[in-house]
Design brief:
Helix 1 packs antiparallel against helix 2 and helix 5 runs antiparallel to helix 6. The chain is mostly helical. It has 9 helices and no strands. The longest helix has 18 residues.
Length: 173
C-alpha cells in the first residue's frame, strides 16, 4: 500500500527528528514526500516537506531548506491545509529565505501564525512557533530577553502537552 509506505516514512522522519538525527529525518522525509506526491497525497507530502525543511534549518542549511518549504507551501495552497499549519510552514520558509540571504527574518509572520494557532487551540503548533520565533530573534540579533521569554513559553506548552522530546530539545536550545 503506497500510502502506508509514505505514512511509515513520515513517522520515521518525525522519530529521527525527535531523536536528534536531522540527516535521518531529512532522508526519510524526502522519500515520504516523493512517495506521497506519486499517489497525489498532498497532506502527507506537505508534512514530509515541512519536516525536511525544518531539519535543514536546524542544521544551518537555510538554502537547502527553501526548496522543500516552497513545495510544502504550494501543496498547502493546493490542498487547503488548516490555516495554522499552513502559517507554520510560511514562518519556516520566511526564516529560511531570510537566513539564506544572510539577513534577519522579520517577525510579523510569526505573530500572524501564532494568532492562528491560538484561535485553533493548537498548542503544539503554538509551541513550535514560539520556539521558531526565539530562534529567529537570536539569528536576527534581537533582544535576548524576548527570545528567552519565547523559549520559556514554548517550554511551558511542551510541558503541558507532555511532549518530552520537544521539551528536552527546547531546554537544550
Amino acid at each position: 500500500d503506497p500510502l502506508a509506505i509514505a505514512d511509515a516514512e513520515i513517522a520515521q522522519s518525525m522519530l529521527a527528528a525527535l531523536e536528534g538525527d536531522p540527516r535521518g529525518a531529512i532522508e526519510h522525509a524526502s522519500h515520504a514526500a516523493e512517495a506521497a506526491e506519486g499517489i497525489d497525497e498532498k497532506a502527507c507530502a506537505f508534512y514530509a516537506r515541512v519536516v525536511a525543511g525544518e531539519q535543514h534549518l536546524l542544521l544551518g542549511e537555510a538554502a537547502k531548506a527553501v526548496p522543500p518549504l516552497e513545495r510544502a507551501q504550494k501543496l498547502a495552497a493546493d490542498g487547503a491545509m488548516v490555516p495554522s499549519v499552513s502559517a507554520h510552514c510560511d514562518v519556516l520558509l520566511h526564516s529560511a529565505v531570510a537566513r539564506a540571504a544572510q539577513r534577519p527574518p522579520t517577525l510579523e509572520r510569526h505573530d500572524n501564525a501564532l494568532a492562528l494557532a491560538q484561535s485553533a487551540r493548537d498548542r503544539s503548533i503554538e509551541a513550535d512557533l514560539l520556539r521558531q520565533r526565539a530562534r529567529d530573534r537570536v539569528a536576527g540579533g534581537g533582544p535576548v530577553d524576548l527570545a528567552l521569554a519565547d523559549y520559556k513559553a514554548s517550554e511551558a506548552a511542551f510541558e503541558a502537552l507532555q511532549a518530552r522530546p520537544l521539551l528536552a530539545q527546547t531546554r537544550a536550545e
